[in-house]
Amino acid sequence: MKAWSQAIALAEKTPADRNRYVDFLRAVSITLVIVGHWLISTAYYSESGFEPGHMLGIQPWTQWLTWLFQVMPVFFFVGGYANGVSLESARRKQLGYGAWLYARLVRLLSPLLLLLLAWTILAIVLRVLGVSREVIQLASQASLIPIWFLAIYIMIVVVAPLTYRLWQRFGRFSTIAFASLAMITDMIFFLLDIRWPGWANYFWVWLAVHQLGYAWRDNRIGKPWQLLAAGVLGLATLAALILNGPYPLAMVGSPDGELSNTLPPKITLLFLGIAQFGILLAIETPVRKWLAKSKVWAATILVNSMIMTVYLWHMTIMIILVGLLFLAGGFGLGLEPGSAAWWWSRPLWLAVLFALLLPVAAALAPLERRKGPQTIPQTPLMLAGAALACLGLALLALFGVGGGPFKGADVASLTLVLVGAFLAGLIGLPEKRRQA
Question: What whole-number distance in Å separates Cα of residue 435 and Cα of residue 425?
Answer without folding.
Answer: 11
